[in-house]
Fold this sequence. Notes:
By secondary structure, the protein is an alpha+beta fold. Helix content is 39%, strand content 28%. The protein has helices spanning 3-14, 18-25, 29-36, 44-53, 58-62, 78-88, 125-132, 161-170, 172-177, and strands at residues 91-97, 100-106, 109-111, 116-121, 135-142, 147-158, 186-198. The protein has a 7-stranded antiparallel beta sheet with strand order 2-1-5-6-7-4-3, with helices on both faces. The model is unreliable at 66-71 (pLDDT under 50).
Amino acid sequence: MTTGEKIAALRKRKGITQEQLSTILKVSRQSVSRWEMDAAFPETEKLIKLSRILDCSIDFLLNTDRQESGTSTAEVSADDCFQFIRECGYFFLATSHDDIPRLRPMGMIYSDGKALFIATDKRKNVYSELTGNPSVELASYNLSTRKWIRISGRMELECSGKIREEMLALYPMITQEYVGQNEIFFVIFKLFINGIHID
C-alpha cells in the first residue's frame, strides 16, 4: 500500500471524513484528497499529527514495503484482533522494565470496536511495568488456523465506567475476585495500536 492508500484506509476505519481531517490538521480538504491520491505528500509536522490521529506509526505510513507479507494494519480492526485472540483463548503480553524484556500469558481482553483494552491488577508487576514503560507487544497463536497475530503499541490507563462495565459483563470472574476493598486493585489499560501483523 502507498502512503496515500494507508491514510485513506485508516481515516475511513476511524469514521473521519476528508473534511474533518482537514479541519483537525488545518489544511484544505483538497490537500487531504491529494495526499490520499498520492498526488502530494504531507509535510513532516502533518505526518506526526496524522500518526497520532490515525493511531499508527510514522514508519507504517512511510514504508510501502513493510506490509508486503501478512495483513496490514489498515485491513484489520480492533474487533478483528479481539475475535482472533478470543478464539485462541489467551495472548502473550511483552513489556520491558529496566531494559529487561518480560513476557507473560494473559486472558482478559476487550474491544469497543475502536480500541483494545486489557484488564490486570495494580498489585501485579505488569501494572508497574505498563505505567513505567507503556510500549508493548501482544501476540497470540491460533492452533486451528496455524496463524499468529502480533500487535504493537502503547498502553494508557483507561478510566471509562462504560468500558469497565462491559469488561465486567464479559468476564464475570472479575466481579468475584474484586469485591469490596479489593475493587480498587482492578485496572484497565487501553492499547493504542501502532502495528498489526497476521501471518
